[in-house]
Amino acid sequence: MKIYGQKENNCTMVxxxxxxxxxxxxxxxxxxxxxxxxxxxxxxxxxWYSPSSQWTYHLFYNKYGPGICGGSSDLGLxxxxxxxxxxxxxxxxxxxxxxLEGGYNVCLEYPYGNEIALIYPNADDSWIEDLYNIxxx
Length: 137
Prior knowledge:
Elements: E1 2-4, E2 12-16, E3 28-31, E4 37-45, E5 56-62, E6 77-81, E7 88-89, H1 92-101, E8 105-109, E9 115-119, H2 126-131
Parallel strand pairs: 1-9, 2-8
Antiparallel strand pairs: 3-4, 3-7, 4-5, 5-6, 8-9
């Protein structure tokens, strides 16, 4: 197991390694105008015949947890206006970056529990390139 950075706290997020690093269910991360990060789905409000500078970007998310539950899709569905320039896809690497920015340690492991890496919040970004050089189990 490779260790990046030095231990500062005991709060650890554990993720199963995803070599593909694909976007999850069309979800994105984006900041609202107060600087708070949110995760959800983008909807763009485009007034008729207007330039893109007049478009409004909304992020929809479930305030009760991840995903949308069956037939009650409006239960807990919340919309917030976000800043367009902060939109990034929800991939494993971006999720780990958000956790590290929040002060969490991150442990990556293979599907059957063998640990690959432990990343601390004070680590440099060398773990990102190393992540793609790991051989899948």
